[in-house]
Specification:
One of its GO terms (biological process) is fatty acid biosynthetic process. By secondary structure, the protein is of the alpha/beta class. It has one domain: Rossmann fold, CATH 3.40.50.720. Helix content is about 40%, strand content about 15%. It contains 13 helices and 13 strands. A hairpin with a 2-residue loop joins strand 1 and strand 2. The longest helix is centred in the middle third of the chain and has 20 residues. The chain is globular and about 60 Å long. It starts with 6 loop residues before the first strand and ends in a 25-residue tail after the last helix. The model has no long low-confidence stretch (mean pLDDT about 95). The structure holds nicotinamide-adenine-dinucleotide. The site of nicotinamide-adenine-dinucleotide has 29 residues, from helix 2, strand 4 and strand 11.
């Protein structure tokens, strides 16, 4: 069928398998062009492996370090008259490329928050790999059903205390307007957001993996966080999601204790703001990203998820002397180029000047839009979108 993008707000309802395949190939080529990661991981579990930072982590492990990978995600294959999700097509593409390169790659599709998916993953690792030496935790979800209590928690993206007014952009139309976001009123919103995006599920995974004996001596685990500039603090770092990130970051100490007898280490990496399915849902952030891209591209420091994760592996997690550089709070920082003073000063200046009229000139809104569509396999260079595409692509390791 001919597949075209169909959007509703920040969601794209369709996805293109050929575009997804090309995007995955582009990421693989980038990782290969950087050369082998010395002392890189060999057997890797990626939780949240189908899109964004998780997909790039899986690609970097496989093609930068010849690692066998198990990927866990929650995606949908095509069904009558409906396309599969972008993450499904990405995973089909990843496995195809990995298998062709002679690399082990299997995937598990289901709710990573559940005990059942943890059990299935452990069984697969036991059967095929024995143990893993790296666990990447890269889930982003609006909901979590708690495996022990059965309670369904929903996260919210709200400021805490005061309402927050700032500029935002509708990236489809390019209209810049003021948005006011009311603070949390329901006192359950904060613990619910922490329950979804905080560190508890990461801890549950690591406890179960350890208990089953599938973590190798010297195992490392990493989860991803974000800080960003002061202008987004009310909606991000000081908002409900920031509380969840504080909780995730605090989990590092708990996991370091848990992994001590395995000589294992746990890390949070603070990554750069990038266009992903999750970040496009946060008000204000898309406008910030459009300005950030403009400034960083002009300076030659712009990175996408694959550049970020390749740098995380090569220059942080697997350094030649084995030391992992951390900030004063014990976190890995690959948002260093985003947070550079000159970058932030320029973004700040542009932020104040931005209007609907000058948006396309002073921001990289065009780049934002293209990347948004790229996430779903659209507007990928080299793909003929007038051509019939087969939407019934399978992920080879998942039985239909
Ligand atoms: P994303 O939406 O691209 O990816 C989310 C992944 O989680 C997908 O693979 C999806 O299938 C999986 N997933 C969601 N719910 C699941 C469930 N119930 N069971 C199994 N899999 C599930 O998100 P992303 O932007 O790559 O975010 C990953 C992490 O990186 C998050 O912790 C996010 O906060 C963090 N981060 C994002 C940015 C950014 O700008 N996008 C910046 C810094 C840090």
């Amino acid at each position: 069928m001919i597949i075209q993008p169909r959007t509703r707000g920040f969601i794209c309802l369709t996805a293109h398998p050929d575009g997804a395949l090309q995007s995955v190939k582009n990421q693989i080529e980038y990782v290969k062009s950087k050369g082998a990661i010395k002392n890189g991981p060999k057997k890797v579990l990626v939780i949240g492996a189908s899109t964004g930072f998780g997909l790039s982590s899986r690609i970097t492990a496989a093609f930068g370090s010849d690692a066998a990978t198990v990927g866990v995600f929650f995606e949908k294959p095509a069904s009558e008259g409906k396309m599969g999700t972008a993450g499904w097509y990405n995973s089909a593409a990843f496995e195809k490329e990995a298998h062709e390169a002679g690399l082990y790659a299997k995937s598990i599709n289901g709710d990573a928050f559940s005990d059942d998916i943890k059990k299935q993953t452990i069984e697969l690792i036991k059967k095929d790999l024995g143990q893993v030496d790296l666990v990447v935790y890269s889930l982003a979800s609006p909901r979590r059903t708690h495996p022990k209590t059965g309670v369904a928690h929903s996260s919210v993206l709200k400021p805490i205390g005061n309402s927050y007014t700032n500029k935002t952009v509708d990236f489809h139309t390019g209209v810049v307007s003021d948005v006011t976001i009311a603070p949390v009123e329901n006192e359950e919103d904060i613990p619910n957001t922490v329950a979804v995006m905080g560190g508890e599920d990461w801890k549950f995974w690591m406890e179960d993996l350890k208990e089953a004996g599938v973590l190798a001596d010297g195992v490392q685990t990493v989860a991803y966080s974000y800080i960003g500039p002061e202008l987004t603090f009310p909606i991000y770092r000081n908002g409900t999601i920031g509380q969840a990130k504080n909780d995730l970051e605090a989990t590092v100490t708990v996991l370091n204790d848990l992994l001590k007898d395995l000589n294992g280490k746990s890390y949070v990496s603070v990554n750069k703001a990038l266009v992903t399915q999750s970040s496009s849902a946060i008000p204000v952030v898309p406008l910030y990203i459009s300005l950030l891209y403009k400034v960083m591209k002009a300076k030659g420091t712009h990175e996408g998820t694959i550049e970020q994760i390749q740098r995380l592996f090569a220059d942080r997690l697997y350094t030649e002397n084995g030391e992992v550089p951390l900030d004063e709070a014990g976190r890995i920082r690959v948002d260093d180029w985003e947070m550079a003073e000159d970058v932030q000063a320029e973004v700040d200046k542009l932020w104040k000047e931005t209007t609907t009229e000058n948006l396309s000139e002073i921001s990289d809104i065009a780049g934002y839009r293209k990347e948004f569509f790229n996430l779903f396999g659209f507007e990928v260079d080299g793909i003929d979108y007038e051509k019939d595409a087969n939407e019934n692509v399978q992920v080879p390791s998942i039985e239909a």
